[in-house]
Amino acid sequence: MREIKVEWFGHSCFRITKDGYAIVFDPYEDNNVPGLTLETLQADEVIASHEHGDHNARKKVELRSEKKDSPFQMIRLESFHDDCRGEKRGFNIMTVLESEGIRIAHLGDIGCMPSPEQMEVLTGLDAVMVPVGGFYTMEPDEIRELLKELDPKVIIPMHYRSETFGYDVIGTLDGFLKAEDPVVTYDTNTLIVCPDMEKQIAVLSCPEQKS
């Protein structure tokens, strides 16, 4: 089927599944992100956008022993975790996945505007997972400018603070949203991305956390 399953596990951690093949992005270590504890996830592949503890806990992902062919074409784009070419926080990798014409991207902890060449690759996305809390990443107003240029169908916010989880120094989801935004709030952590989706900011529910 022409669809991709997106599951959010809090912070910037997602599992992307197509035709039984799963990729986990940015798993976080225990006792790292306040209010969140990541269960061990099963997948065929794990990708860390950069080597910080809230994004690179590969040990939290149990890779399946049976090797499958990935249905995804993958493009990895090198960027920076800050606005001074990595001097403060180092590098960041943005990843674009495509399968059967559906294109989604995980922007990691993007800290600056992509290059013109990268913007071209990131244009026309069906869905994008993007940090909206600022401080460690581009600030919310900068992210909105980026998204305005990219014009994805579905925006999936990540890397923000709520009343129950997240770093104190990053902003809340409300600090990113505007009154005119087409926000759809889901009572699940799962979204099925397909070609005919309406434009929206898809707010997924963070799954119940283990204490």
TrEMBL record:
<dbReference type="Pfam" id="PF13483">
    <property type="entry name" value="Lactamase_B_3"/>
</dbReference>
<dbReference type="InterPro" id="IPR036866">
    <property type="entry name" value="RibonucZ/Hydroxyglut_hydro"/>
</dbReference>
<protein>
    <submittedName>
        <fullName>MBL fold metallo-hydrolase</fullName>
    </submittedName>
</protein>
